[in-house]
TrEMBL record:
<protein>
    <submittedName>
        <fullName>Saccharopine dehydrogenase</fullName>
    </submittedName>
</protein>
<dbReference type="InterPro" id="IPR036291">
    <property type="entry name" value="NAD(P)-bd_dom_sf"/>
</dbReference>
Amino acid sequence: MEYTILIIGGNGLVGKTITRILKSRNPNLTVFTGGRKGGKTDNDLRIDVTDPSTFQVISDKKIQFIILSVNDKSDHVLRFAIENGIDYLDITKPTPDLVKAYDFAVQSEINSRIVFSSGWMGGIVPALVNAVAHNTDDIQDVRLFVYYSVKDLAGESSAHFMAENVAVPFHHYKNNQAVPIRHFLNAETFDFSFGIGKRRAYHFDVPDLYIINRIERVPNVNVKMTYNSKFITWLLGAFQYVRIFNILSLKERKMIFGSSGNGDQSVFEILVKGQSGFRKLSLRSSKGQAELTALSAVLHTEELLRNSHEHTVYFSHQLHHPLSLLAQLSAYETINIHTS
C-alpha cells in the first residue's frame, strides 16, 4: 500500500503508539512524525500547529494524509488540509473545539476526506452503540460509563483539558434538550464488569454527548465516569460540590489531574435502550486508553486507505459498518468485548 502519512504530535504518547501499530500492520506505508522540535531522521519534521509557516514541509514531502494527535485550538492544520486537498483525521478535540471545527468544515469546499474522531477512545462509541442496537432508529437512550485508572499511562492533553474545564459547565441531553451540568456531580452507582464491581460514577464531558445526540439523533445521552480509587472519585466530587476548583489556579488544577502511571486497564460500558429494553456492551483494553485510542485511529486510517469514501466531512464512526468495526476491535489481542 503506497501512501504518505504524517502524524502531527507523533512524539507524544498516543502519537508514538499510533506509529507503532500503524507500521506493524502496514509496513509499506511511509510515515512521517511532526513535532515542534523536529527530530534526527528525515522522517522527523518540524511542525508547530500554532505556526502555519512551518506547514510548507507538508507540501514538500507530498503528504497525502494527516493524523492530528495534538490539540490545534486555532484549526490551522484543518484549514491547511482543506485548502490543499489532504485527507485529515483528528483525534484530539474536546467538545467545544470539536463543534467549532466541525461547523467550519461543513461550510467549506471539501476536496478530501475530513474526519473528526475525538470521541471517547478514538471515536468508536457511536459505532458500538449502533452495533448492539436491534434497530438504530429505535434508540431512545444511550449511557456511557467510564472506568479510569490513575495508574494508566496518560498523555498531557487529557489532563490539561480537565484542568482547564473542570469548573466549566457542559451539557448532557434529555428529551433532546441540552441540560447544563458540571463534572463530578450527580453520582450514581454502576456495577462495572471485568471484576471491578459497584462504583460511584459522576458526570463527565466527552464529545460523544454531542455526537450521539446531534448527529445520531438519540434524544437522551448521558456519560459518567469513576476512578479506580474510590477515595479520589469521592474527593473530586466533594471539591466540585463546594466549588474548590473555582478558586484553584490552572497550575494547581493541572497538578491534580496531571498524574500518569506505568500502565493499567481501561474499561467502558455502553447501555443502549430501545423499545425492547436495554442492551449492554462492555469493553476492556488491558493495555490502557492510549493503546485503544491509537488502535481506533489506525482502524479509521486503514478504512480510508482501503475503501472508497467520498470527499466530505465525517465523524469517524460514519466510515465503518458498525459490526465490522466491532469485529476488528474484538480481534485485537489486548481487547476484550462482551455484550448482554
